[in-house]
Amino acid sequence: MLSRLAPRWARRAWSRWKAGRLLEGAPAEMAMYWVRRPRVEAAVRRAGGAVRRVVEDGGCGREYRSLRYWVTRDSPRDEY
Q1: Is this structure's pTM higher than 0.85?
Q2: Count of H helices and E strands in the chain?
């Protein structure tokens, strides 16, 4: 690929810039279908985050329980 010709630092900078532009003004969302709350919270903790708020939002009707999570990362880490 042509992108491999660029130095790694340049690829990282481009990736970060592109991600910032795509997500600008939009909340980050991740679909978590059929995953129980304790598993979601454990996954967030393992990734270095913290669940700040959980609200039942009724997005799936009365037949299913639907939760919306607000999550922050406690300490930033480099993903690259």
Answers
A1: no
A2: 2, 2
